[in-house]
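Explain my protein.
***
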Amino acid sequence: MSASNIDRSEQTPTTTDSHFFFIPESITTNDGPLFQVTRRWTGKRLQRPVRFKKLNTKTTDSSLSPSVFVMPDSKIVSQTAPEPVGLYPHARRVGNLLFLSGIGPRKKGTSEIPGVELDPEGNVIRHDIESQCRSVFDNVKTVVEGAGSSWGQIVDVTVFLTHMKQDFAIYNRIYAEYFADNQPCRTTVEIKSLPTPIAIELKCIATIGQEPVEHA
């Protein structure tokens, strides 16, 4: 595809949230507009495409391979969610799927964990699972929405609890509040511990670029 195929005449940044801009480009062929690519502008440089919108699915232009419609694999690092505790992004987008790393209830920029009281050695004296549940759900929402998806597009949730017998009932009630409308697949697992002194962590998959369709 030559440079002449890219229409840059309408590259007006459009704000989707307070952290970056999206800039659309219409890519055309001999049959007219084919699809729209949206790139993310960070204020310093234009990043790889993060969104595609098909405009013409009946092109006969032989210069385009089928792979042109494949969404790029992109790392997503949120500026508003708690920092990862290792070398990994908050999420990765592959095609129309968004894969989140494990997300906990910790507050951004601090080691504070809602509802947790520690002794001088850093051992947990007590924890409030309700506070942690609400905080972790809010953190997941921050990452999902910042990546361009939505809470309603979460399709699979794996939940790790460190005290299943003690915390499940409260966690299950709060989970039902947050997922009353959207009901993704869910797996809840008890584990001995997590890397930080938290009692819950979520691992989620969401769709992106299209709203899910419910089937009767």
Q: What stands out?
A: Residues 77 and 90 are 5 Å apart (CA to CA).
